[in-house]
Fold:
Amino acid sequence: MEYEIKGVINQTLSVRLARDERFWAGKGNLVSYDETIDWSVKPLGGVGKAVSRVLSGESIMLVHCLAREAGTINFASRQPGRVVRWDLQEQGDVTALSGAFLGAYGEIDIRVTRARRVGAMFFGGAGLLLQRISGTGTVFLSTKGDLVDTQLESGETIVVSSGNLAAFSSECDYRIRSVRGCLRKITGGEGFFMTELTGPGRVLVQSMKRGAGKQER
Structure:
């Protein structure tokens, strides 16, 4: 598999597959493909895991692409933003929020996981259930808007506005913290809670909040 990330405002992912190679993509992300590529819609890892994906805000099905002969497929998110590569062997498992999964190559497993701390489930802007992607393959994630890509050292902490978190290393500690001061809580526009992540691990932050622009789609 060879790939190229193209564009600026709404980046696309161009994937070149050799004969008999396969690629999984999020439903609705397929843009174009060569006639040597066959694709279908099917669950990854069986119906049970597919149903659990629905609980994390994703589609029950994924797009499965198979190259009969060498060919190219193009993908893009349904929202303006950046495309990010995540190597599971080098960087470990990734926990992604709803809408962040664009596609994957190689041996991967996607399962639903709960936020580690109860408060994070309800107030951290990430929701009750998240997607944990593991395996030995390569994952491509999409962020909404521009991207802040941060590598946290052990014990280093970043605080993220609710809704701006796209994905993070599964080894990161994840919890919520209260916004200090009544005035900031009421008039700051960020709600009462922020998301706090502590390294080691990689954190992807998007410049546009999840849910923004839904009325336009």
In short: Residues 120-125, 181-191 have pLDDT under 50 and may be disordered. Helices lie at 47-55, 88-91, 118-123, 182-187. The CA atoms of residues 30 and 75 lie 5 Å apart. The first strand starts at residue 2 and ends at 6.
